[in-house]
Design a protein that fits this description.
Helices cover 44% and strands 11% of the residues. It folds into two domains: 149 residues, Thiamin diphosphate (ThDP)-binding fold, Pyr/PP domains (Rossmann fold, 3-Layer(aba) Sandwich); 32 residues. By secondary structure, the protein is α/β, with parallel strands linked by helices. Strand 3 and strand 4 form a beta hairpin. It has eight helices and six strands, in the order H-H-E-H-E-E-E-E-H-E-H-H-H-H.
Length: 249
């Protein structure tokens, strides 16, 4: 997808690196004069999402520092689901995560991560504040990872079923459905949402499986903004290696 069009950057699989990318972008937004003008069509802010496990990485601390010193328009959003694979939050921090930014000069607050409206309200408030030039803010959304971390993970080896059952009762989707029904929303709406969700999932799966494998050389295309001799050398080596492998197929 086009990050400029969607305002959603490409996903970074390496733990916590997206925090540095987001802070850098926010610094650029401020340098471009797109903060605090009072023009909602012009003013911008950045939000970076990451988990409790990522807060143990140095990238997050560096991001908080640079954002604070430069008064960058960014909201740090920690999804604290309490388990970094098999490491519980108690083994990762001695203080609540929303206080992590205080030493750098970044204020924070904790919200109910299973409350859809609370998450929306807090995010909107602090994104608006960032756009207006009030600098960075940190949100910690307290939630829980019900399922396994990956298909190779067996969470029953490191946590109790009773703990999982307690959080299942706080399911944010079910809570929001109950709220909407109390506002008079009927069954037809929820059936439409279910059908639309199923159709979208089928469409995404079909389009994903239909994608062709990109050329392997694409991995070198965006390392630098301009051609670089070291990258050219690595590309040539890979092409030669692939050619040799092809001869043995």
């Amino acid at each position: 997808w086009d990050p400029e069009e969607t305002r959603f950057h490409h996903y970074a699989i390496v733990l916590a690196t997206q925090v540095l990318h987001a802070v850098g972008y926010a610094m650029g937004v401020k340098l471009d004069g797109k903060v605090g003008t009072g023009d909602r069509e012009k003013d911008l802010a950045v939000i970076s999402y990451f988990g409790d496990g990522a807060t143990a990485e140095g990238d997050v601390s560096e991001g908080l520092l640079f954002a604070a010193v430069n008064e960058s328009p960014i909201v740090f959003f920690i999804q604290n689901n309490q388990w970094a694979i098999s490491s519980h939050i108690d083994s990762q921090t001695k203080a609540p995560l929303y206080t992590r930014g205080e030493g750098f000069g970044v204020p924070g607050m904790r919200i109910d991560g299973n409350d859809v409206l609370a998450c929306y309200a807090a995010t909107r408030l602090h994104m608006d504040n960032a756009r207006s030039g009030e600098g960075p803010f940190l949100l910690e959304a307290l939630t829980y990872r019900i399922g396994a971390h990956t298909t190779s993970d067996d969470p029953s080896k490191y946590r109790e079923d009773a703990e999982v059952d307690e959080w299942k009762a706080k399911d944010p989707i079910k809570r929001f459905e109950i709220f909407l029904r109390r506002q008079g929303i009927g069954d037809d709406f929820f059936e439409e949402v279910k059908v639309a969700g199923d159709d979208l999932a089928k469409k995404i799966r079909a389009e994903t499986f239909a994608l062709e494998d990109p050329p392997l050389g694409n991995i070198f295309n965006h390392v630098y903004t301009e051609q670089h001799p070291e990258i050219d050398k690595q590309r040539a080596w890979l092409e030669a290696y692939e050619a040799r492998m092809g001869d043995h197929e």
